[in-house]
Specification:
The chain is α/β, with parallel strands linked by helices. The chain has a single domain (4-124, 174-224), classed as Rossmann fold, CATH 3.40.50. The protein has helices spanning 36-54, 79-86, 123-136, 143-147, 161-165, 206-224, and strands spanning 4-10, 13-20, 27-31, 58-62, 95-100, 114-118, 151-154, 157-160, 176-180, 189-191.
Length: 225
């Protein structure tokens, strides 16, 4: 089933939105990881939302302001402002959050009926990864030194210090958490698979897609009962 291209309007402008599955009933709102990991996981998340649509569960994949195809500049954005934008994606439907990695930081402003996270990454962990990548590019200085710059380039992304500084305080709370078997953090379920966000090129994992689609569909159905 091909996704349908739509849009949503928020206080900062208009962003693209992909719709999957039925136009009525509950909808899963997916949030890709932030920054570089979004490019590596988008194909996988689209496949996951297609699989959910085949199970009768609607899916929405909004562009986050400043990410993907968004024309909104990152300058002036913070994580709370990004999260607030997603809160207006589907005000007329019963929604459930689907957060992938740092995408799990973007659902706290929306009154979802439930939150399902796959390998969620805290804002503190994301900031550590960004600092590590920044240092690997030849920059010197600790994290505080990186944050003192008005704008920081990390893996081709020009990130304002206001955005980076907002990461550690971001809440990351879910009703159900699924992680990879190699991840020791707390989880409701573990699945043996490779981390797609570490691949050099974008891709997907058909077996993992079906496993996660089954898990999400069963969870949404239980929440709706």
């Amino acid at each position: 089933m091909a996704p349908r291209i739509d849009h949503y309007d928020w206080s900062g402008g208009r962003e693209m939105l992909l719709r999957f599955g039925p136009d009525t009933g509950p909808a899963v709102v997916a949030a890709l990881p932030l920054f570089e990991e979004a490019n590596r996981t988008r194909t996988f998340v689209v496949a996951l939302l297609r699989a959910l649509a085949a199970r009768g569960i609607a899916g929405l994949l909004p562009d986050v302001p400043g990410q993907n195809e968004s024309v909104t500049p990152l300058t002036g954005l913070t994580l709370p402002r990004m999260a607030a934008a997603l809160a207006v994606v589907a005000p007329d439907r019963r929604t459930y959050a689907l957060g992938i990695r740092s995408g799990a930081l973007l659902d706290h402003a929306t009154p979802h009926r439930g939150r399902w996270h796959f390998s969620p990454q805290t804002g503190e962990a994301l900031l550590r990864d960004l600092h590590r990548t920044w240092r690997a590019a030849g920059n010197t200085g600790d994290r505080d030194g990186m944050l003192r710059s008005d704008m920081v380039e990390v893996a081709g992304n020009h990130l304002p210090s206001t955005l980076l500084s907002s990461l550690p305080a971001a809440p990351c709370v879910a009703d159900r958490v699924v992680r990879l078997a190699s991840d020791p953090a707390k989880a409701d379920r573990r699945i043996d698979a490779a981390p797609l966000w570490h691949r050099a090129e974008p891709g997907t994992d058909p077996v993992l897609v079906q496993q996660l689609a089954d898990d999400i569909a069963e969870w949404v159905t239980a929440c709706e009962a």
